[in-house]
Amino acid sequence: MKxxxxxxxxxxxxLAEMVTPGxxxxxxGCDHGFLSIYLVQKGISPHxxxxxxxxxxxxxxxxxxENSGLGAYIETRLSDGMCGMRDDEAETVVCAGMGxxxxxxxxxxxxxxxxxxxxLILQPxxxxxxxxxFLRRMGFRITDESAVxxxxxxxxxxxxxxxxxxxxxxxxxxxxxxxxxxxxxxLLLCRRNPVLKQYLMFRRNVLSQLLEKLLGENTGRASxxxxxxxxxxxxxxxxxCRYA
Length: 244
Known about the structure:
Elements: H1 10-16, E1 25-28, H2 34-41, E2 48-52, H3 55-68, E3 74-78, E4 92-98, H4 100-109, H5 111-116, E5 119-124, H6 128-137, E6 140-150, E7 153-162, H7 172-184, H8 186-190, H9 194-215, H10 220-240
Parallel strand pairs: 1-2, 1-4, 2-3, 4-5
Antiparallel strand pairs: 5-7, 6-7
Helix pairs in contact: 4-6, 6-7, 9-10
């Protein structure tokens, strides 16, 4: 791998493009370290902390860093979330490859560190509505969003900065609108992101088939799920109207 440039997957490339050039980066859950190596190879970051809670992937990342000849610029470190990072070691944290609840837990356990950073680059793989709402409650503002479709999966990424201003909603109409923005991403909707549209149409198709199946069942559980599916479809149709 020495002197050979890393080629990232689309979902990792999306993250790399969100990092502000010149910022030191802490790559949380670095896996095999390819993103960390890429950021240094491309001159995006002068120094990267590649951290993972798992010894196996971290050992692989360490080997890849050594083979790339970038050991002076990339440090691998065993760490549970941001616990192993000092306050002054990075301006940017990249966190990807995990569910929204776990990501929320990682940020909550190191909230003071998270608030002191200049930016968070985040790619939750589930619970996006709850995660975006969590960021709002904690005083973070999403300043950029992107999406890719790769190998049969949709990936959504966001850049968040701490402002200290909690964004709340009060009126029922505002709450319904905020739910849609939290679920699908305000910036993605405003920009009429084509990958998001692809996702919305995919979900509409899946839920429409599920709706037909539930209509043929006559159980209390089916009735409850039926209401949920109809609500999800309503939100998707509302979101798709942004593309008209």
